[in-house]
Specification:
Elements: H1 10-24, E1 31-33, H2 34-47, H3 55-75, E2 82-84, H4 85-96, H5 100-118, H6 127-136, H7 141-151, H8 161-171
Antiparallel strand pairs: 1-2
Helix pairs in contact: 1-4, 2-3, 3-5, 5-8, 6-7
């Protein structure tokens, strides 16, 4: 995985991270909590016609829980089992700025399970599959195609788990909130 070092001042980085918060807050209640991760998992299962009780469904819910636990461990300062916008900004800036790969690592089980569901023929996630995932996870519909194209950096219409993990880590250290 490529090393990504933030090239921005702290205020700029905090603005960017605050933008990312809204993408995690699936229900829009102003907090990131376990329910946001469960909601994302349920929506992905529905999109790809996968049952919750299947091996892939169970892996996705387990991955979502692991991701939530990692997120809470980084950012839930007051221990109330939810992450406020300020906790997210502070936690992300304080703990991830020097090690953005850590965030990708806590997301790995979830992303691995997403890949298993979106890779419908066993040859990698297609751009179309990536667009579906992104749309379900709340990325602006207008941006899904551009983001999927950016993920498919070699242009073979297949996106590997490693490409997804690398892009995920990079997303949290880019200087522009709207960078795919």
């Amino acid at each position: 995985m490529t090393s990504y070092a933030p090239r921005m001042d702290s205020a700029e980085y905090e603005r960017k991270i605050a933008h990312r918060f809204a993408e995690f807050d699936q229900d829009g209640n102003g907090y990131i909590d376990r329910a946001d991760f469960s909601k994302a998992a349920a929506a992905l299962l529905a999109e790809f016609g996968t049952t919750a009780r299947s091996d892939k469904g169970q892996a996705l819910y387990s991955g979502a829980e692991a991701f939530w636990q990692g997120m809470a461990g980084i950012a839930d300062v007051d221990g109330d089992q939810r992450v406020s916008r300020q906790e997210f900004v502070t936690g992300a800036v304080k703990r991830l700025r020097d090690n953005p790969r850590r965030f990708a690592e806590i997301a790995r089980p979830f992303l691995h399970a997403v890949v298993a569901i979106a890779d419908e023929d066993g040859s990698g996630v297609t751009r179309a599959g990536a667009e579906r995932v992104l749309r379900v996870l709340g990325v602006d519909t207008d941006r899904c195609s551009a983001v999927a194209a950016a993920l498919d950096s070699d242009g073979d219409d297949r996106i590997s788990e490693d490409q997804i993990l690398e892009a995920f880590a990079a997303y949290y250290v880019t200087s522009e909130p709207d960078t795919p």
